Batch of 2 targets.
Target 1
Amino acid sequence: MIKRLFTLLSLIAIAQIAISQSRIKQSINSNWEFHKGAIDGYPANSAKVEWQPISIPHTWNAVDVNDDEPGYYRGIGWYKKILYIPSSDKNKQLYLQFEGANQTAEVYINGKLASKHTGGYTAFNVLISPYLKNTADSLAQNEILVKVDNSFNDAIAPLDADFTFYGGIYRDVYLITANEAHFTLDDNGSQGIKIKTPVVTAETATVTISGNISNLNKAKLTVITDVTDAQGKLVGQVKTAVNSAVFEQSVTIKLPHLWSPDAPYLYRISSKIFVGDKLLDEVNNPLGLRWYSFDADKGFYLNGKPVKLIGACRHQDFNGLGNALPNALHERDIELLKNMGGNFIRIAHYPQDPAILEACDRLGILASVEIPIVNRITETEAFYANCKQMQLEMIRQNYNHPSVVIWAYMNEVLLRPKYTRNSDEQKRYFARITALAKSLDSLTRSEDKERYTMISCHGSFDLYQSTGLTAVPQIIGWNLYNGWYSAGFEGFARFLDNHHKNLPHTPMIVTEYGADADIRVHSTKPERFDKSIEYQVQYHQYYLKTMIEKPFVVGGALWNLADFNSESRADATPHINTKGINTDDRMPKDAYYFYQANLLKKPFLKIGSTGWNLRTGIADANGVCTQQVYTYSNGHDVQLWLNGKLLKSQPVEQGVAVFDVPFVDGDNSIKAVGTLNGKVYEDMATVKFKMVPATFTNTADHFTDMNISLGDNRFFVDEKLQQVWMPEQPYQKGSWGYIGGKVFVMPDHSRQSFGSDKSIYDTDLDAVYETQRTGIEAFKFDVPDGEYDITLGFAELEGKPAGPALVYNLGGTEQAATTAQRAFDVSINGELVIKSLGTQNYLQAQRAYATTIRVSAKNNAGISIDFKALKGAAILNAVQIAKVY
């Protein structure tokens, strides 16, 4: 026992010595300070400005991208930290590693410029040893100052995009302490080691390990690489004497465990540098053994088997945090994708946190990674050089991830072309884009001969063909939105067939497809642009079915895994692109359940109708209101129970079973039951239903309130106020509704059949206020006698508000106010209550105006709200009635 204890202590001591002699990498995210804005005479005057304590990750745009003021801060921010360096490290090589700072960074150590970096989405290492204080103090204090700038810069991609360019040091920062001999930290932010798998079969795998070593003392070194399996068993080892800065090794593994989405088996490669028996450095990498190919007729093959790639694109921000996320939230997104049944991620439109690909390796998600050349380019050598450097950094830093199968480098680059259409200038511009694509593609293939290259294009097939861009990469991605930005789902299938016909030798992936859905909006008659949860499900039903039916389609990445911030977006959810199948705080929408029902191999059953557990509707003759409830399952049928009684059994079609449910007033208990693989599964939900009477006869005792949205057919759920807005209806005697007018449609005869697509200021109810009835004559409630509060809601939807130039956005110019000229009187029960309401007073463009009026209903006359147009047409966006007594 004593001997075993002595041996154990000896091993611990040896391990501690080995650790102390190898590199140490530790995060230094705490105890930073931040100053927003420039510092005159920087960095010498840094002590004269106010500093705010913060922690990394950090962005200065977490709040201003969501306010009502157009634009967000794009400028300079400064970060400061005191670094305490022990005197024992004076002979070490010390580096700072920044995983991401957007979009340019200058690093100062003790007032001296140590490094600069361009590009906000790749990591960079900074050697700081030459700038550290050389003192006898046991812990020397060294000041780090980092200047970060996210100003628009026409030499740096992205120039323009449908996402927010957050500023800040928004990913982790590390201090790396290395010996004088170490795997290089000066290779474009990489580990200095490259793992290749030139031969992989079911019987054998050949693994090569190569890299560069920084060897300041020119010592005679040995590199030993161990390959261990998932249980820690050594399965291969190679030892190489190194006489130069470059080394290469090879290991053969017999009967390898293959990596795949179903079985993401990872080996571990540990590479060590020794001088004699002394360990100087150690770097570890995952190893996933797989082989794959893309075929223009048959799609994607992994380890000799066909695999349809179905997954999602992903942006890196989160509600309330901007893009400054802890690793746990990055990892959670990949878990969301895996739990959906997905096997593919398009990391768009830029390289993301290292935690993302680490999770993909571990969970079995195949990945495409790209640099952010989006919408357009700048025709300068500086822009081209920065793009190439981004591509190089992306590949070098992420090369060793087995999940990565595609390197991409452009997205919808012809979406907003410069110059007059078909002009000579535009033709030269297109030629320069194609030349840049060829340059990037050549660079990529020289760096990595195993993976494939890809460009993602918007749905203008002839344009990309005519410019020659479709001939450059090995795979073409298409971002297609038939049924959303263009009418009709059917165009999607036609487009896919057209690609296969005209590019028969080029594999194709649907790299984007999606429809906006506001989790608060529901419709019993879903239609394009209504942003209802129900329309989004219909959209994805068609797209998934079509892609699966066509074997030549490699797969698809839906847009998007989660809603994300795009500050310039103006809509019912201002600043948010809501095409996600999860909200921006990762609450699943019905479309997420739809994919689970279609992709998961384990049993799945879920009651959907996300966010619609609070409902309202009009009672029928039996005192119930029938509305649809969506359920999702990968079984054959679903039983639905309502308030303890079997309602119906319904077959499942493409993962969906829809039930017509007769809700009663109050709480309704719903249970879905399904039998899958011989086992019974259940899901429960409670729907709180507020019944609205069809007529107001004998309702004096139980009628309380109702909320009506004019000009659309949607329901809007306000969870915060526990209110549900219901669609308008024409007036019938004894009931309620509007008289006269028409549904507002934007004057430009847009693709939207109702309402505005602009943000409405001074309200959280944008979806309610962006629709209206124009030319309305009256709105009547034939309610019983009593006291009522009537709230009228208005918003001027024609025209636009005045706004400043968007200083921190792209080339903004001051926006002049424009508006329709209108004025009208509002009377209630014959009494004038609002005189000459119009654009000369309270009705400002795109701004909500609401007023509440106490009204007495007398003599069984109910309440009549009358509108008299004085100039232009009278309007009404919303009306609420609440009984007081």
Note: The CA atoms of residues 422 and 466 lie 11 Å apart.
Target 2
Amino acid sequence: MPPARTVSESSPLLAYLFAAWPETKKKQVRTWLKLGSVAVNGRVITQFDHPLKPGDQVLIRAKGLAAPETKVAGGIRIRHEDADIIVIDKPPGLLSIASPSETERTVYSFLTDHVRLGNKRGRERVWVVHRLDRETSGLMVFAKSEQAKRALQDHWDAVEKKYLAVVEGRPPQDAGLLDSHLDESNPLKVYSAPEGPETRHALTRYRVTKKGKTTSLVELTLETGRRHQIRVQLADARCPIVGDKKYGAETNPIRRVALHASGLRFLHPTTRETMRFDSPLPGDLGRLV
């Protein structure tokens, strides 16, 4: 597909496209618009007379690649898509992958439908790189090939993963390190335990960013990636995440665990370019502090 172009003077979109890509047949240019292949400043535009101003970036996107901030089924917001990866913002209440009780309304299912362009018989698919709990919202990355999946997972420990949590009370200090050993042998609940053959070391750095009367907003950076790591360690620190009744929370005003995956930084599996994504605190969590 043609590279992005920078607008130098005001113009309606269709007229600009004709002038910027004179080698392309006008019928093809109109097809770009009709199929949502034209993005202006990262947003898909289909309106032929959309006004452009100097400095606007116009990009013709490859078929099937969503523009940043495109919303797809399930309330999933696509933050980035290329030939190798899809980065999304997951809403709360949506499983990452299928479970015995839910096989259709999952991130994996919705993204598979997206890359197949709605063709149920298509062979395209996505690969799961990591997971978020059902009630956790925020950033996830999926691979679009097995090679990309392996490249991401082989270096997953080096990926910067940040979370925001609203907790009951507050941690013992305004910043620090949560250091424990977790027993993940129980499929329903993770426990802290003395170091042993059934445990894995877990490290989480934290910083309190806002204090309320009964709650605190905590930013957390994972040094390791154990199941329910943040939830267990905050509960052990006597400040469980709001809504996390499994790990001792006493309140649940928004009917979900107040945990949000807010930051991802990693090397692109193919280009090795540093990819960085941030997701702001959702409004339902912000109102708790």
Note: Helices lie at 13-20, 26-34, 107-115, 146-154, 229-236, 283-286.
